[in-house]
Amino acid sequence: MATNAQPIAVIARLLDLSERRIQQLSREGVIPKAERGQYDLVAAVRGYVAYLRDLAVRAQAGAPDFGVERARLIKAKADLAEMEADGRRGELLPADAVEAAWTAVLARLRSRLLVLPDRLALLCFEETTIAGVRDQIRKAVREALDELATSPVVVADPEGTGAAGGDGAEGALDPAAAAGIDDQ
Q: What are the b/e assignments for 95-132, b being 16+ CB within 10 Å?
C-alpha cells in the first residue's frame, strides 16, 4: 500500500496543532513518523483521533484533575482549621463527649420512666374515674420531665480538665447506674 507522506506543516494545519506539538506527539508514539520530516497522513489522523478518544475516556472515568484535587485539599485544610478554632473557642464539642452526654440524659429518662408504674399503681387504683387516672399519669409524667429539664447535663471539655455546658456540680451520669435488671 502506498503511503501518503506529508510534511509536518500539512499535518499540523490539518490537526490544528503547532509543528512542535506534532513533534511531541510523534515522540510519544501517538503520531507515527514515516520518514525524515514526513508523516503518513492517514496514520497521523488515526493516531491523533485515538489519542483524543483515550483522553475523553480518562476524563469520564474520573482521572484526577490536579487543579480540582488541589482545591479540594485546600478547602479541607481550611475547614479543619476552622473546626479547630471553633473547638478552642468552645463552640464545637467532640462527638464522643456529646454522645456521652446524650447517653446520660437518656439513661436518666429511662430510669424516671421505669419508676412510673410503681409510683402510679396505688394512686391509680384509688382513683374512681378514668379522668382521675389520666390526671395522675399526666402529673407524674410532667414531674419526671420537669426534673429532667432542670437537672444539668455536663459535657466533658476536649482537654478533659473540667466541664463545659454546665455548672460542674453533677457531671455526666453513668448510664450503667440507671440500667435495670436487664442492663438496658
A: eebeebbebbbebbeebbeeeeeeebeeebeeeeeeee
- Check: CB of residue 31 under 8 Å from CB of residue 17: no
Of 19, 22, 20, 18, the residue nearest 45 (C-alpha) = 22
Q: What is the mean pLDDT of residues 44-57?
A: 90
Question: 145-150 — which CB contacts under 8 Å span 24+ positions?
Answer: 147/112, 148/105, 148/108, 148/109, 148/112
Is pLDDT above 90 for 127?
Answer: no
Instruction: Please indicate, yes or no, whether the overall pTM of this predicted structure exceeds 0.70.
Output: no
Question: Confidence class of residue 62 from pLDDT cuts 50, 70 and 90?
Answer: low
Q: Which residues of 7-39 are buried (b: 16+ CB within 10 A; e: fewer)?
A: ebeebbeebebeeeebbebbeeebbebeeeebb
Q: Are strands 163-164 and 155-156 parallel, antiparallel or unpaired?
A: antiparallel
